[in-house]
Amino acid sequence: MNKKIADRIKKEALYIIKTKETIRNAAKKFKVSKSTVHKDINERLDKISPILFNQVRIVLNEHLMTRHIKGGESTKIKYQKA
Predict the structure, then answer these.
(1) Where in the sequence is the domain holding 54, given as residue range(s)?
(2) Distance between CA atoms of 27 and 8, rounded to whole angstroms?
(3) Minimal CA–CA distance to 14: which of 43, 32, 41?
(4) Largest CA distance in the chain
(5) Which of 6, 2, 37 lies closest to 23 in space, CA to CA?
(6) How many domains are there within the chain?
(7) Where are the alpha helices (DSSP H) in the chain?
(8) Which of 61, 44, 57 is nearest to 10 (CA)?
(9) How do residues 5-64 score in pLDDT, each as one tens digit?
(10) What CA–CA distance (Å, rounded) separates 6 from 67?
């Protein structure tokens, strides 16, 4: 793997771990697509750094567990404004 790509993947992982941001926000920060960050984190990171991979998975699993709550809050706000 290209060193430049490996460095980007590590930076994405550290950003997600440190800020607890979503894949979407990480993609905006690093000016790449959501698909690229998703592939970097879920497929490539494990080969580069299994420790970082496990730490990122913890953050992303938290996002999965709370997304239904955030969606409900967004819908509530949307209809309160109407």
Answers:
(1) 3-81
(2) 11
(3) 41
(4) 51
(5) 37
(6) 1
(7) 3-19, 23-30, 34-39, 45-48, 50-81
(8) 44
(9) 999 999 999 999 999 999 999 999 999 999 999 999 999 999 999 999 999 999 999 999
(10) 29
